[in-house]
Design a protein that fits this description.
There is one protein chain. The protein is α/β, with parallel strands linked by helices and about 375 residues long. It folds into two domains: about 220 residues, 3-Layer(aba) Sandwich (Rossmann fold); about 90 residues, no CATH class. It contains eleven helices and 15 strands. The strands form three sheets. It has a seven-stranded mixed β-sheet, sandwiched between helices. α1 crosses α11 and α3 packs parallel to α6. The longest helix has 17 residues. It is globular.
Length: about 375
């Protein structure tokens, strides 16, 4: 019994996190583009619906269980129908713990049928009895994770639930996610942060590193700003336009699939379209003599938008880096699908931190 099973496996965020610990998983995923991505990256995949997949063939074969149920119904970026479905989700958890599978009945009463997918990890856990479990979701799901943890304690697991910030583990974005860690063989403890908003030295002289900025991760010049909807702060009539702005001199905002519309803006001399001003000529001359920090192509062309400001789109490779994937990770599907895969995935660096704290001891992996 040494298989790690990854439910709602996506493009492979957990798989990449496991790979850094010398481990492999088998992922269950239904999206064809994500399955193609996983296959290209060398991760074993079963294309199937997690909710419909039978657990009986897996009994006695699974040592670790990972799950990141779809978050759209609970996310602040979505319609949050999951908030209305919370009582039904709690009911499903209790029913499963008492041996009653009422998922099909409860699903018909949900405002969004995807809400009930948050109960699937408990179904697999109770049927398969893995040595350890790691779950991840948006913070709004924490009450359901706490409920799941109480039920797992009755089943003999040590558990921990809480919210982790990806920036505290070397990811160049302030992405906060709820986690549930559980183990039948060792105390379940949260990972120790390796980074902090400010450097910190503890009583033993150990210092945390500073948060990784977006600029540092992507090799950007200082002073770049990002608009998350691609609209300028004001339109031609001076009216306020949509989109949040943040500085690339700190960690990025949390990525979602909408990062495909992010605009990076600089008034410091990025290369502009032919015949257009370049801002600071000295800086421009220096920059074009240095290696490019991004993948070349039309998506990376800058354009002059006036007022000494140039802009360009965030590239797919840059989004991958901000999520701590390799820049050349083989994402498949349309551009929209690829950005969605990145935004929905757990950052591999954060995955490694969570897995090291719970799986290393259970599987005797060097931490």
């Amino acid at each position: 019994m040494n298989t790690v099973l990854d439910l709602f496996a996506g493009p492979g965020g957990w798989s990449e996190g496991l790979r850094r610990l010398g481990l492999r998983d088998v992922g269950i995923e239904t999206d064809p583009a994500a399955c193609a991505t996983r296959t290209a990256a060398g991760h074993a995949t079963i294309r199937a619906d997690v909710a419909a997949y039978p657990t009986q063939p897996l009994v006695g074969k699974v040592a670790g269980l990972i799950a990141s149920p779809p978050c759209q119904t609970f996310s602040t970026a979505g319609l949050r129908a999951g908030s209305d479905d919370l009582p039904l989700c709690h009911e499903a958890l209790d029913d499963l713990a008492h041996g009653n599978d009422t998922r099909e009945h409860l699903r018909t009463a949900c405002a969004d049928k995807r809400s009930l997918l948050v109960a699937e990890p408990l179904r697999y856990a109770l049927d398969l009895h893995p040595e350890w479990i790691v779950l991840e979701e948006v913070p709004a799901v924490l009450p359901l994770f706490e409920h799941t943890a109480r039920l797992l304690k009755v089943a003999g697991y040590s558990t921990w639930t809480g919210v982790l910030n990806a920036a505290d583990f070397g990811v160049a974005q302030t992405r906060r996610r709820a986690f549930l860690l559980a183990s039948r063989t060792h105390p379940a403890l949260p990972p120790d942060p390796t980074h902090g908003k400010n450097t910190h030295v503890d009583l033993f002289g150990s210092a945390r590193q500073s948060w990784v900025s977006m600029a540092d991760a992507l090799g950007l010049e200082p002073g770049v700003t990002v608009n998350t909807r691609g609209a300028r702060p004001t339109d031609k009539r001076g009216r306020a336009a949509g989109g949040n702005e943040f500085s690339a001199d700190g960690p990025s905002n949390a990525l979602t699939g909408r990062a495909r519309s992010w605009k990076l803006r600089s008034g410091q001399g990025w290369k502009s379209s032919p015949g257009q001003p370049t801002g600071n000529t000295d800086r421009y001359e220096r920059m074009i003599s240095e290696p490019s920090f991004t993948i070349t192509g039309t998506a990376n062309r800058c354009k002059w938008i006036g007022d000494g400001v140039e802009e360009r789109n965030l590239t797919l490779a840059e989004a991958a880096i901000l999520q701590s994937f390799p820049s050349d990770y083989p994402f498949h599907g349309t551009r929209t699908s690829q950005f969605q895969q990145i935004g929905n995935a757990v950052p591999p660096l954060l995955a490694t931190a969570a897995l090291r704290s719970i799986a290393a001891a259970a599987l005797e992996v060097a931490a």
